[in-house]
Amino acid sequence: MGIEPDIEFGNNCLCFEAGRTPKRIFLNFSGIQEGSIWFPGLPGSPNGTYVCTQGIPCSWTLNTPDFIFNYQTNLPGSQISVFNFLTGFFAFNFIAIADCVFAGANNIAVPLNKAWWGGKGRLAWQD
Asked: How far is 10 from 20, CA to CA, in rounded Å?
């Protein structure tokens, strides 16, 4: 997973013990594939590990030139997502109806009319 960032605590979020909400988390994606409308020039599948930073309570984000990586909880519910500005498509989108869900399979389950599909996402933090 590479070098882990030093633990720094952010705004409290009910998924973590009071005062122990991490400022940064790791989002890891595997198995995401190109779909039927993917074409050369679009970014490849965003498989890998990304460090996201808490901006507002219970939401961690990383903006890159190709994708926005995000984890949110207490919506109510939880969402792990990867969004591409150019296409307006999600490369990964997992939504759970429960708070504090830290892993899941892509809700984009078929390649038809999608730029990316499939795979799994999970998050971790150092404590």
From this structure: 8
Q: How many residues in total does the chain contain? A: 127
What is the distance between the alpha carbons of residues 83 and 58, in angstroms, rounded to a whole number? 18
Q: What's the rounded Cα separation, in Å, for the pair 127 and 116?
A: 33
Report, as ranges of residue numbers, the positions in the chain whose pLDDT lies below 50: 1-5, 127
Quote the DSSP letter at residue 113. Answer: T
Alpha-helix runs per DSSP H in the chain = none
What is the torsional sign of CA 85, 31, 127, 4?
A: negative
SS3 64: coil
Which pTM value belongs to this model? 0.89
Secondary structure class of 65 (helix, strand, coil):
coil
The first and second tokens of residue 83, run together, are 């969004």
- pLDDT score at 51: 96
